[in-house]
Each structure stands twice: as structure tokens, then as C-alpha cells.
């Protein structure tokens, strides 16, 4: 049996996720919180958590600083996530997720994160390149102090080393990555709309946006729309685009669903699955995540069952 492909999860702005379960939350009052969770967080660590659950060989590269950074590293190790940490000045950020199960609402407070010097960023990139992974997933935001164009340089270098690059980011960082045409871009409707200057809120507009990304040189473009599903199209997958639509579920939290989707997509593409099958698996991972409170805590045993419930069509 062939060894699993190696994945490098590039996480420029990791976080300590602090999840608070606060029933009947009342703003402006003092309340006791009956349940809390701490987890190594940020998009990349959520992706890694799911990727590892799916059996992928994963290494996370992340800049970490201060006591918070040490805690993130400790939590990652406790979960069995292989983490290559680059020490930096300042404290790794904390992201606070307040879940009110009474009203089915979630409030997310994301700290900005510490600024990185050019020296620390270069040390981070050097660690990424030393992993020598076939598949490289760039996940999440850039830290303060780092110009978006650094992603252009990083992707160029990864291509010089004949590696695959998959991107899930947003804003100026996404625009910079687009300049060097990543192999795979996975973004949500809001991120696609910001990039392309259009409203992407339906399957039809997502189809238009994905087609435009491919026209601009992206090999495989995937756009997610939450409960509506996802669309994808790619040069290597033939002329037809794919629509994946999940069955209705009772969701507990949307936080992390896109990260779980990205992990499933990467796993399936690395396994040389068709685009339709990749979207089916990815959507199943997103559905599994939606049924949990903590991001990335999917049960891999139910993915195949959920995947069979995903409706696939073509355009």
C-alpha cells in the first residue's frame, strides 16, 4: 500500500480558541458559564485536526509566541497533531467563541494577533520549505506587519519545488495569492464576492464566480455557500462544473465547517478522486462539523454515510 501523501498546513496566524457555552446570554450582565473548551485554533489547526482524523499525514507550521503560544503548542501535541512552531515575539492571539444554545446564536471575537518582523516571517517560511510536503495548504489570515505579497513569493517558491498549493484565505492575501495562480482555491461566497466585485449568494452566482476564477488561471476553484452547498470547476476535471448539495440538518455551529470542508477536499484531491467525489466528501466533512460545537471535531466514522446523502449535479 502506498504511503499517504504528506500535507503541510501553513498557518500564518494561529490562535487559542476559547469556546464558552452561555445559555440565554444577556449582554451587559454578569453570568456564570457552565461549560468551556480550549483548543489549538485558527483555520490551519482546524484543518489539521480534521485531516488527521481522515488519516492524512499532516505537519502544521505556525508562528507561536508567549504563554498563549505555548498553550496552543501543548494542546496540539495532546491531540497528536505534528506541529513545527516558529518562536516569535508577543502573544499568540485568542479567539473567543460565545455559543448561546437557547437562541442558536454564536458570537465570535477574533483578536488581531501579534505583528511579525521580517526576520520571524523568513524563519517561518524556511520551516515551511523544510517540511518538503507534496501538498501545501495555505490557511487563514496573515498576521499584522506582513504584506500580502509575501504569499506570492511563497507560492512561487513552492512551485519551483514542484509542490501542489491549495489556498483558503481572504481579502488582500487572497488577491496576492491569485497573482500566481494556486492549484486549488477554496473560498466562501463572501470572499469570492469581495475578490471579484460581485454578489455571490446563490448557486447561480457561485457558478459564475468559480468560472471566473478558472478563467483567471486557477486550476480548480471551489466556492462554498453554507447550507446551500458548494460548487466547483477545474481545468483538469473536464468542462463540467459540479454542484454538491447537503440534506437539511439541525446545525449546532457553523464555525469551522469551511475548514473541515477544506480538509476533506484536500484529502480527496490528493487521493486522485474526481471533482464530484471530492466535493461530496468535502461537503460531508462540513456537515459533520456543523453538528458539533468545537471546530474540527468531526467523527470520521460517519463521513462515508454523510457523503452518500450529498446530492451531486453538473452544470
UniProtKB/TrEMBL annotation:
Domain of life: Bacteria
Keywords assigned: ATP-binding, Kinase, Nucleotide-binding, Transferase
A Pfam family per the record: PfkB
Top-rank EC class of the record's enzyme: transferase
EC numbers on record: 2.7.1.56
GO biological process terms held by the UniProt record: carbohydrate catabolic process; small molecule metabolic process
GO cellular component assignments: cytosol
Gene Ontology MF annotations: 1-phosphofructokinase activity; ATP binding
Keyword presence, Kinase: yes
Record domain Carbohydrate kinase PfkB: where: 23-291
PANTHER family on file: 1-PHOSPHOFRUCTOKINASE, 1-PHOSPHOFRUCTOKINASE-RELATED
Entry's family note: Belongs to the carbohydrate kinase PfkB family.
Name of the protein: 1-phosphofructokinase
Species of the source: Chloroflexus aggregans (strain MD-66 / DSM 9485)
Amino acid at each position: 500500500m502506498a504511503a499517504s501523501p504528506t500535507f503541510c498546513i501553513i498557518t500564518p496566524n494561529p490562535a487559542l480558541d476559547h469556546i464558552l457555552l452561555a445559555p440565554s446570554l444577556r449582554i451587559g450582565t454578569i453570568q456564570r458559564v457552565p461549560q468551556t473548551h480550549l483548543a489549538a485554533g485558527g483555520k490551519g489547526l482546524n484543518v489539521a485536526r480534521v485531516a488527521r482524523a481522515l488519516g492524512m499525514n499532516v505537519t502544521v507550521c505556525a508562528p507561536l509566541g508567549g504563554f498563549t503560544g505555548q498553550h496552543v503548542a501543548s494542546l496540539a501535541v495532546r491531540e497528536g497533531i505534528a506541529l513545527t512552531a516558529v518562536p516569535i515575539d508577543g502573544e499568540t492571539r485568542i479567539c473567543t467563541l460565545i455559543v448561546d444554545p437557547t437562541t442558536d446564536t454564536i458570537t465570535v471575537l477574533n483578536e488581531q494577533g501579534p505583528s511579525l518582523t521580517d526576520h520571524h516571517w523568513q524563519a517561518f517560511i524556511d520551516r515551511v520549505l523544510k517540511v518538503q510536503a507534496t501538498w501545501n495548504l495555505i490557511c487563514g489570515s496573515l498576521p499584522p506587519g506582513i504584506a500580502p505579497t509575501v504569499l506570492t513569493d511563497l507560492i512561487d517558491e513552492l512551485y519551483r519545488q514542484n509542490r501542489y498549493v491549495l489556498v483558503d484565505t481572504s481579502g488582500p492575501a487572497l488577491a496576492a495569492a491569485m497573482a500566481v495562480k494556486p492549484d486549488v482555491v477554496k473560498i466562501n461566497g463572501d470572499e469570492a464576492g469581495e475578490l471579484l466585485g460581485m454578489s455571490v449568494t446563490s448557486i447561480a452566482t457561485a457558478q459564475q464566480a468559480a468560472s471566473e476564477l478558472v478563467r483567471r488561471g486557477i486550476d480548480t476553484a471551489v466556492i462554498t455557500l453554507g447550507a446551500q452547498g458548494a460548487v466547483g470547476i477545474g481545468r483538469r476535471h473536464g468542462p463540467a462544473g459540479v454542484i454538491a448539495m447537503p440534506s437539511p440538518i439541525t446545525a449546532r455551529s457553523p464555525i469551522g465547517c469551511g475548514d473541515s470542508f477544506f480538509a476533506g477536499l484536500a484529502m480527496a484531491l490528493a487521493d486522485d478522486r474526481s471533482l464530484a467525489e471530492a466535493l461530496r466528501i468535502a461537503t460531508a466533512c462540513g456537515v459533520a462539523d456543523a453538528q458539533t460545537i468545537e471546530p474540527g471535531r468531526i467523527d470520521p466514522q460517519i463521513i462515508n454515510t454523510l457523503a452518500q446523502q450529498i446530492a451531486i449535479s453538473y452544470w
